[in-house]
Inverse folding.
């Protein structure tokens, strides 16, 4: 089947989509957007987190056909041209990236958190990131990065 | 495989009547796992996301809430936390934020897993499931009659789940769940309680400790008869913020113990990868005592709201 959707502000069309296919597969394999990672395929790891009509979801658990006509924003759509999003900058600066596989999902999820909760508490950060698994850094630097990004966005730090 | 995309409820029912093997998909958080892992290959996916009415809830004339099958856990928490505190607590334990943004109570009902987190609070609150087919119209199925076996429900092949109905809480409600961590956990077992003080009645729900979610009926009847409802309802025993939890209407240790025993006896758990039958029985007893204590203390202290008269 054919699926038309808006991805990062552009209308995209994917053809020959299998009816049982996930949105994640469409993004990565048909639209050339490999930023969202394919790891667990069961919603467990969060590395495929994207915005679907403004809400973060696991792209591996959205049927491609369910995304028809809807708006998707992936990690590729967060930066403003060459300027990284503050969440991405903070991840780089805090060393919150090791192998990098979980990073796109964490960045999208953190991006959503600080858009909703400008200065989240540690408990709120942990809750927001509870569905994103990292097997390298041990999370401390990820928490640092989210705190830094939030503080900068709120103008309480530079 | 076909991908069917009805836009209205009538259309969805017509599609389901024509192709009863079509698998309904709502948030996809169960169905897509089965597709991704080749566990299931339905002839068709019946996407219900476009049926807008399923995403709505309303307060009905008879005082009950009617919650559409497509209302997500995130929205249950944000919009119905006051009215359905037990269900909202259970919703908070589902998966992760990403899962709660997609997963629905309707989908949980459709999957009818004994471990589904919605089921115990729905049972405890006497929820009723509204299902419909094009051929036979609406059927209202009490939650206690809805679950028939492991992942089997009373839903017929040509029926779809439209909504669930339940009264807003008329007393304290609690949900408790055992798992290895706070997020992304399928319940080892779970327990829900709802006190209905105006009716001197108690509702319970046991999750993941029997082939189906089920009530602990003997435990409910025991409590209804033994709890000192009058003492809490005439207001003599109201707990102050800092008062010791003693007093006339405090729960006697023997009552708590017996309630825990009866709740555990209502379970018929198995050993599996998530836990042993013995552990589950033990944990059900602990959660029963714990949730009763929370609920009773709320009632005694007049929080959050004694909607008893």
């Amino acid at each position: 089947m054919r699926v038309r959707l808006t991805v990062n502000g552009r209308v995209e069309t994917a053809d020959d989509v299998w009816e049982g296919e996930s949105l994640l597969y469409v993004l990565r394999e048909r639209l050339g957007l490999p930023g969202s990672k394919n790891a667990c395929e069961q919603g467990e790891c969060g590395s495929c987190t994207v915005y679907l009509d403004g809400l973060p979801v696991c792209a591996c658990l959205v049927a491609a056909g369910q995304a028809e006509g809807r708006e998707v924003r992936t990690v590729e759509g967060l930066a403003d041209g060459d300027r990284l999003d503050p969440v991405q900058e903070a991840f780089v600066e805090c060393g919150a990236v090791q192998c990098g596989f979980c990073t796109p999902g964490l960045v999208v999820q953190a991006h959503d958190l600080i858009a909703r909760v400008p200065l989240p508490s540690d408990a709120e950060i942990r809750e927001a990131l509870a569905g994103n698994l990292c097997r390298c850094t041990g999370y401390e630097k990820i928490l640092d990065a989210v705190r830094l990004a939030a503080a900068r966005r709120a103008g309480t730090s530079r | 495989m076909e991908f069917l995309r009805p836009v209205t409820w009538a259309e969805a029912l017509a599609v389901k009547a024509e192709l009863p093997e079509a698998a309904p998909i709502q948030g996809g958080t169960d169905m897509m796992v089965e597709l991704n892992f080749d566990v299931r290959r339905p002839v068709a996916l019946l996407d219900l996301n476009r049926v807008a009415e399923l995403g709505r809830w309303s307060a009905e004339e008879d005082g009950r809430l009617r919650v559409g099958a497509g209302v997500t856990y995130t929205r249950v928490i944000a919009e119905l936390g006051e009215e359905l505190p037990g269900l909202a607590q259970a919703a908070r334990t589902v998966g992760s934020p990403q899962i709660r943004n997609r997963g629905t109570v309707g989908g949980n009902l459709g999957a009818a897993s004994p471990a589904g987190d919605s089921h115990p609070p729905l049972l405890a609150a006497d929820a009723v499931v509204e299902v419909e087919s094009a051929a036979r119209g609406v059927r209202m199925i009490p939650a206690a009659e809805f679950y028939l076996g492991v992942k089997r429900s009373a839903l017929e092949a040509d029926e779809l789940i439209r909504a669930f109905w339940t009264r807003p809480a008329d007393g304290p409600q609690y949900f408790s769940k055992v798992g290895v961590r706070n997020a992304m956990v399928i319940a080892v077992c779970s327990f829900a309680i709802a006190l209905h003080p105006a009716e001197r009645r108690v509702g319970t729900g046991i999750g993941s400790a029997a082939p189906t979610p089920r009530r602990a009926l003997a435990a409910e009847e025991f409590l209804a008869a033994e709890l000192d409802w009058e003492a809490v309802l005439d207001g003599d025993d109201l707990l102050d913020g800092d008062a010791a939890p003693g007093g006339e209407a405090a729960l006697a240790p023997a009552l708590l113990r017996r309630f825990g025993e009866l709740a555990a006896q209502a379970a018929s758990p198995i050993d599996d990868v998530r836990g042993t039958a013995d552990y589950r029985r033990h944990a059900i007893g602990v959660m029963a005592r714990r949730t009763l204590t929370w609920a009773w203390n709320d009632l005694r202290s007049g929080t959050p709201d004694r909607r008893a008269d």
Notes: Chain B touches chain A at residues 1-3, 5, 25, 27-29, 31-33, 35-37, 41, 44-45, 47, 49, 74, 95-99, 101-102, 182-184 (CB under 8 Å). The domain at 2-166 of chain B is CATH 3.30.465.10 (Uridine Diphospho-n-acetylenolpyruvylglucosamine Reductase; domain 3). Chain B has a mean pLDDT of 94.
